[in-house]
Design goal:
elongated, alpha/beta, Na+/H+ antiporter like fold, Rossmann fold, 12 strands, 749 residues, two-stranded antiparallel sheet
Length: 749
């Protein structure tokens, strides 16, 4: 076999120069478009049009020889770069496809999407049947051409729609979410249709057999992706995240899988971008994928490859040809039919199936009419497959630009007449608070467990505390939990069995068990914690009576050295003597080693379910984080109550306002602190009381109020104080831990 050779030197030179020029001009024009309030994609496409035969290349033939490929090899090289840009763009689109969002607005979104696709596809197909023959690359393939045009008309542009919604502060409005969900549904169905049509176009002839074969290939690919593919992604993500230490290892994994899935779809005679899109959806469903990876991919895609892709698409457009009266008329007809089909279809679906009012129904069509990026990708595929002529390609690109420019103006005009409901207003207020929430950003949790020979009591204890907390934290967003045990080699099998049993108590979609053999449990846990975890949950059911440790040697050291926030669960005084040990808790002197199943000498306690929760606050960020945790614990049950408490001590030194160097009234400061927590509780629909109390010691006041108000749980926020090898969370926090008779959660951030 001959060794492959590189392209000619001159062709490589031109490619490097073309990419540099296209990227620079595309980003510059994108900046101009953004400053004018338009999606950057419009400027990036215009960059290619300006550089192409429509303007500069048409005026200066010498420049055209540089910027426009003159040979097949040059064309292939530039098309390859553009293809990579399209795959990255579809990968990002898949990552941002929120399946839960579609489910949450499923009735309206599906009705809007169904109506929009059905009517637009029908009008697009009808139009394709009657367009002049010279717009077809092959006049004998009228059916494929019509199907392709119909598919192109059906798809909306999620990136453009999202940009318009963000610019208008509509992203979190009900109407904005429904438009986005319907757009995601449009794109998903549209890419399936596109792959089917592309597969038909790649065949020898259009017959019932070829159509069924292509549809079967698409369905088989999707079933394989969301079963075997999803399992594979989860396993690979776990392995790479936990075992590979290379920098940007997860970034590499996502890109590799996107290209492999693209290769599979290309092998099936579908489009490689479908594989990238589906792989993006699969990775987007993984709660343990760090947000940092998605941001890096967005930087690569939107900052480098996508602008080049859009500029290349613009190079292929010749606006001068469209100035011909006949083509100008056809362009206007295409834009009109595309707009009418999308607005009429989405309006009908929202109005008659979704039961929405007139203006709300009309707004869906105004938003989803934007084609932008997706339309350019489809048009490029049609040109490459020999379905579209050069003129038809230019018409579709112009249609994509015009509909994208129309969307912001149409939405602004219509949404002035759409009112916001009380329920939606309350949700928006809650989401504004969530956007600044540490708890809402928790996606991956490590729970170390000493899982040796557990009895029924230990299982119920774990179920009623840590599992309850984590299930409430992950109620509104997916979190991944890792149950970890560090043990000796002889106990490994028993630990694995126990962790498997314990995993059944957790309701999260992803619960991973991990048993590690190591003589240094603290080092093993800290090594694991450095693998992109957002929170470590530690049980402290047994305290060291000496002053050398706050909880016990291992829990203290993990808390002090943890690379992420820690949540320490301390049981109430009555439960401490009976509770099972967590990771690292030493045996009591004279305690025999268990060699078999422990005997049950008492009935296990009932599932932990605190009804009244106390949140001490001093106005600090740590206290606010603790309050958020308490709210998450209470929000699922309307019978639960929060008590926000601020204690002012009987001291002569008042509270100082550092920024203004003025003395603040302590009671006013305390009142503001508890009212801030009440606002948080009210936003989530949690009954929240406030109290400002005075006393000689913080812990004394808290203990007294806790007993008088039948408090079931105290949640405190703090941070590790530097200064010694001993864990020090502050004198007052330590006193609360020592005096509290009810369970205490310490959130250390």
């Amino acid at each position: 076999m001959d060794i492959f050779s590189a392209a000619p030197h001159h062709d490589i030179f031109l490619l490097v120069l073309q990419v540099g020029i296209l990227l620079f001009v595309a980003r510059a024009m994108g900046e101009v478009a953004t400053r004018l309030g338009q999606p950057s994609v419009v400027g990036e496409i215009l960059a290619g049009i300006i550089l192409g035969p429509s303007l500069l290349s048409g005026l200066f033939p010498g420049f055209a020889e540089i910027i426009i490929p003159q040979t097949e090899v040059q064309g292939y090289l530039l098309e390859l770069v553009a293809l990579i840009g399209a795959m990255f763009l579809l990968l990002i689109t898949g990552l941002e496809t929120d399946i839960q969002l579609i489910k949450r607005h499923s009735k309206t979104a599906i009705s809007v999407s169904f109506g929009g696709i059905l009517v637009t596809f029908g009008t697009g197909f009808f139009m394709g049947q009657y367009l002049p023959d010279f717009l077809l690359a092959d006049s004998n393939e009228r059916l494929v051409f019509s199907l392709f045009v119909a598919t192109a008309m059906s798809i909306s542009a999620i990136p453009v729609i999202a940009k318009v919604l963000m610019d208008m502060n509509l992203m979190r409005r009900d109407i904005g979410q429904t438009i986005l969900a319907a757009g995601m549904s449009d794109d998903t169905i549209g890419w399936i249709l596109l792959s089917t049509v592309a597969g038909i176009a790649a065949g020898d002839a259009v017959t019932t057999g070829t159509v069924l074969k292509t549809v079967a290939s698409v369905l088989a690919f999707l079933v394989m992706s969301f079963t075997l593919g999803r399992w594979m992604v989860r396993k690979l993500l776990t392995f790479v995240q936990d075992e590979v230490v290379s920098h940007d290892r997860l970034l590499t994994l996502v890109v590799v899988m996107a290209f492999l899935w693209g290769a599979i779809t290309q092998w099936l005679h579908l489009e490689s971008i479908l594989g990238a899109f589906v792989m993006g959806i699969l990775f987007g469903m993984m709660p343990r994928l760090p947000e940092e990876v998605i941001k890096k991919l967005e930087s690569i895609a939107l900052g480098i490859f996508a602008p080049v892709f859009f500029a290349v698409a613009g190079l292929k457009v010749n606006i001068l040809n469209l100035l011909d009266p006949q083509l100008l008329l056809i362009t206007a007809i295409v834009i009109g039919i595309a707009t009418f089909g999308k607005i009429a279809g989405t309006y009908s679906g929202a109005r008659f199936i979704g039961k929405k009012d007139h203006w709300t129904s009309l707004s869906f069509g105004a938003g989803l009419n934007a084609r932008g990026a997706m339309e350019i990708i489809i048009a490029t595929i049609g040109l490459r497959l020999g379905i579209l002529s050069q003129d038809m390609f230019s018409i579709i690109v112009v249609m994509a630009i015009v509909t994208s420019l129309m969307a912001p103006f149409a939405l602004r005009s219509i949404l002035k007449r759409v009112t916001i409901g009380k329920e939606e207003e309350e949700r928006l207020k809650k989401e504004e608070l969530e956007s600044k929430s540490m708890i809402a950003d928790i996606h991956r949790v490590l729970l170390p467990i000493r899982a040796r020979q557990p009895g029924k009591e230990e299982l119920l204890n774990l179920q009623s505390t840590e599992s309850k907390i984590l299930s409430l934290i992950g109620e509104d967003h997916a979190i991944s939990i890792t149950l970890m045990s560090v043990t000796e080699k002889s106990d490994r099998q028993q630990c694995e069995k126990t962790l498997k049993t314990l995993s059944g108590f957790f309701t999260q979609s992803e619960v991973i068990t991990k048993t590690i053999t190591d003589q240094k449990p603290v080092d093993a846990i800290l090594d694991e914690a450095r693998k992109d975890y957002d929170l470590i949950v530690l049980g402290a059911t047994e305290q060291d009576e000496s002053r050398d440790h706050l909880f016990n040697p291992i829990v203290d050291k993990i808390t002090r050295l943890a690379p992420c926030p820690t949540l320490i669960v301390q049981a109430g005084k009555d439960a401490i003597s009976q509770a099972p040990r967590r990771t690292g808790e030493p045996k009591q002197t004279g305690e025999p080693e268990q060699t078999g199943e422990p005997k049950q000498t008492r009935e296990p306690k009932r599932s932990w379910d605190p009804q009244r929760i106390l949140i001490p606050t001093n106005g600090s960020q740590a206290a606010k984080n603790a309050a958020e945790l308490a709210v998450y614990i209470a929000k699922s049950d309307p019978s639960k109550e929060l008590l926000a408490l601020s204690v002012t001590l009987n001291e002569l030194t008042p509270v100082q306002n550092i920024q203004s160097n003025t003395v603040l009234n302590r009671n006013l400061f305390a009142t503001e602190a508890v009212m801030e927590l009440k606002e948080l509780g009210d936003a989530y629909g949690v009954k929240t009381e406030t109290m400002v109390a005075e006393g000689d010691t913080l812990e004394g006041v808290i203990c007294d109020i806790s007993e008088k108000n039948s408090i079931d749980l105290i949640v405190v926020g703090t941070s590790v104080r530097p200064g010694s090898n001993r864990l020090y969370l502050g004198r007052r926090v330590e006193n609360i831990l020592r005096t509290a008779t009810c369970p205490v959660l310490v959130l250390n951030t």
